[in-house]
Amino acid sequence: MNPPPPTPASHSNEVTAQALREQYESGATVDELVASSGLSYGSVLNRLHDAGTVMRTSWQTRRLRDGHARRNLAARLRRLYEQQGATLTELAAAGSVTRRVARRLLIEAGGTPRTTQQTLRIRSAASTARRKKLALSLRARYEAGATVPDLAAECSYSVGTVYRLLHQAGTRMRPKHNHGPARAPRKQS
Q1: How many CB atoms neighbour CB 188 within 10 A?
Q2: What angle do CA 16, 5, 50 make, to 5 degrees?
Q3: I want to staple 92 with a disulfide (CB 3.0 to 4.6 A). Which of 50, 73, 102, 154 is the partner?
Q4: Distance, C-alpha 41 to centroid of its chain
Q5: CA 130, CA 32: separation in Å to the nearest integer?
Q6: Is the dihedral angle over the CA atoms 18, 24, 26, 28 positive or is it negative?
Q7: What is the pTM of this model?
């Protein structure tokens, strides 16, 4: 009697590799995965690598597993996400974790993941506010006597961009080659 045929190795490796990755990203260490799976240390590492797992350092694992540190990290990521409009990718980089873990931490902290469109709207509103503030600052300096080329050099913008910002701020422009403070228009008699 022949033994039953073995299951295809590639299929079992993929399932096991994905399961190992999920456990690892949930905070399990490689040693714990070795103990629970019965695989060798090298096999676990190889399967994690095959599944595309981003490996952590020991201090990242401790921080992820420690309840207080995990809550602090989750709260910090939520603040970045909600107040500064950070993306999940940026959260992952800030927290030294994967995007999946960053999303999980965000949800643990009470945050709600946004759609891409919502993130773009938040970022564009912040950009518009910064641009308006810059335009008003340029206007004040221009009205105090600074020239457009000087403002462009100070801000590292082109002359055309400075003119556009000044016009957006409603600046009354001086005639060409008339350097100095803006003058009130002459009254015609």
Answers
A1: 4
A2: 25
A3: 102
A4: 34
A5: 49
A6: positive
A7: 0.42
- CA distances (Å), 75 to each of 56, 71, 101, 116, 187, in order? 20, 6, 13, 21, 62
Closest C-alpha among 130, 49, 122, 58 to residue 90: 122
- In the chain, % helix, strand, coil (3-state, to 5) comes to 65, 0, 35
Structure confidence by residue, pLDDT tens digits, 83-115: 878 888 888 888 888 888 889 899 989 998 988
CA 52 from chain centre, in angstroms, equals 21
Give kind and range of the element (H or E) at residue 112.
none
Per-residue burial over 146-179, b if 16 or more Cβ lie within 10 Å, else e, is bbbeebbeeeebeeeebbebbeebebeebeeeee
Name the DSSP class of 156: T
Give all strands (DSSP E) within 60-180, no chain letters.
none
pLDDT at 8: 46
